[in-house]
Amino acid sequence: MLPWGHLAVGYLVYTVLVRVRGQRAPAGVPTLVLALGTQLPDLVDKPLNWWFGIFDGRGIGHSLFAVTAVCLLVAFVAYRADRLDAAGALSVGLYTHLLGDSYQALLSGEFGRAAFLLWPLVPAPTYPKDSLFEHLDAWMTYLQALPRLSPSQIMASGFGFQLVLLLVLFGIWALDGFPGVGTLWRFVTRRPADATRISD
User: Is the CB of residue 131 less than 8 Å from the CB of residue 53?
Assistant: First the structure.
C-alpha cells in the first residue's frame, strides 16, 4: 500500500473508533501521532532496502512482534505521562499499516507474501533493492496517465483506488474539523500559551 493509502485507512479506522467511544472527533495530538504511525513501518524498512538491500522494504518495521513491543513500550510511557490517547492512536496507525500491506496476501491464501509479519521467526521476503527515486518515477508515470484512464480503470488499479481513498480521507478529515492542523501550527509557531502542554 502506498503512503497516502496507509494514511487514509489509518485515519478512517481511527475516527470511527474515536466516535464509537463517544468523542465528537479525533483530537489534534493523537491525530498527528496516528499519521506518524501509519508511515513508521516504511520509515524504518524502506531505507534499509534502498540503501543497504536488506529485506524488500518490509522487515523489522513490519513485524507483528516488533510493532507490538513498540506499542507496549509507548503505552507504558504514555500512561505515566497521561497520554494514553496518543499511544492508542500510534497503535492504530501501526497495525492498520501492517493490515494494509498484508490483507491481499492473507485473503488469497498466499501466506508466504505476508511472512514479514512473523519476522524474525520467519525470514522476511528479500527482493533486489530499489530506490526512492524509482518509486517517485513510477508514481509520476501513473499520474501522467491518469487523465487517459476511465473511472473503472482507475478503481481497478491499486494506485488509483488509493487516490480515491485519499479523497475520502480529506472529506472525513474536513467533517472532523481538520484535527491536527491547529496543534501543528501552534507547535511550529511555539505560542507561549502552549508551552506547558498541548491539550488537544
Answer: no
DSSP class of residue 15 equals H
- Reported as a single tens digit per residue, the pLDDT across 24-81 is 899 999 999 999 999 999 999 988 877 877 777 788 999 999 999 999 999 999 999 9
Global confidence as pTM: 0.84
Amino acid present at 142? Y
For residue 14, give Cα distances in angstroms to 20, 27, 92, 99, 184. 10, 11, 7, 14, 19
One DSSP character per residue, 171-199 reads HHHHHTT-TTHHHHHHHHHT-GGGSS---
Q: Which value, to the nearest 10 degrees, does the dihedral of the CA atoms of residues 52, 57, 61, 63 take?
A: -120
Rounded Cα gap, residues 154 and 97, in angstroms? 22
> Environment class of residue 129 by beta-carbon count within 10 Å: exposed (0-12), middle (13-18) or buried (19+)?
middle
3-state secondary structure 103-137: HHHHHHCCHHHHHHHHCCCCCCCCCCCCCHHHHHH
Domain positions in the chain are 3-194
Residue 155 pLDDT > 80: no
Q: What is the pLDDT of residues 101-141, one digit of tens each?
A: 999 999 999 988 888 999 999 887 766 556 667 767 777 87
Q: How far is CA 185 from the centre of its chain?
A: 21
